[in-house]
Write a structure and sequence with these properties.
With 234 residues, the chain is of the alpha/beta class. It contains ten helices and eight strands. It has an eight-stranded mixed beta sheet with strand order 3-2-1-4-7-6-8-5, with helices on both faces.
């Protein structure tokens, strides 16, 4: 980051990562545009990368934790290793919009509530724009944002919801379903841009269908570890 964190800074950023050396420097640079008094700590929780993700993150000024077990386990560890009253949970392949920190500050000044960004997917395919539109409906009226949109949470509200469960996959859906029982999840009004690699590899509708099948299997009680093995298979 551009300056050391201060003890009174209100926000901790937690980023689970596994072999994300191609994306983390850009995200950490986006985070470095925030005022120095905003971010208490930026934690990259590395799941055992072999591509230098941990070293690059440390060079960029992030705190690095080594935690395996999947994304939910990494997020839970990052939350437990921070103390700020607000948490920003981000996937490692996201990019933040210019001025993102101003939207975050406005949200933190409002009555305590969970917040999310809008999803943008990298790529020119018109089908991706349709997916983004569907996500807007799911996140707004449907109150079901997912982790790839980024989640801004008051720590006290997260604790009231039961905290982040150390799950290898579906930790975001599990958390959001509990959060929305406590009140509405609000829109920060800015997009994040996620890397479109999975959408390119499987095709837009193939990716959407596969994700829907995984969510349905989780709701039926399938072990999240088995779902993670399916999700991350080559």
């Amino acid at each position: 980051m551009t300056a050391p964190p201060t003890a009174s800074a209100p926000l901790a950023v937690v980023i689970p990562a596994l072999n994300e050396a191609g994306h983390l420097p850009a995200l950490l640079a986006d985070l470095a545009t925030a005022p120095s008094a905003l971010i208490e700590s930026c934690l990259v929780v590395d799941g055992g990368s072999s591509d230098g993700s941990a070293q690059l993150s440390a060079l960029a000024g992030a705190r690095v934790l080594q935690v395996g077990g999947g994304r939910g386990c990494q997020l839970a560890a990052g939350v437990n290793h921070s103390s700020a009253p607000w948490l920003l949970l981000l996937h490692a392949d996201l990019r933040l919009a210019q001025g993102w920190w101003s939207a975050v500050q406005r949200a933190m000044a409002a009555p305590e509530a969970p917040w999310c960004f809008r999803l943008g997917i990298e790529g020119a395919d018109l089908a991706l724009r349709l997916v983004e539109w569907g996500v807007r409906l799911r996140s707004g009226p449907g109150q079901l944002p997912y982790g790839d949109q980024g989640l801004l949470l008051p720590r006290r509200l997260l604790e009231r919801a039961g905290g982040l469960r150390a799950m290898p996959l579906m930790e975001d859906l599990d958390l959001v379903l509990r959060l929305r029982q406590l009140g509405p999840i609000h829109d920060l009004g800015l997009p994040v841009r996620v890397d479109g690699r999975r959408w390119r590899r499987l095709g837009v509708w193939g990716t959407a269908w596969r994700n829907a099948q995984l969510r349905q299997a989780w709701r039926r009680g399938t072990d999240p570890a088995a779902l993670a093995a399916r999700y991350y298979q080559p």
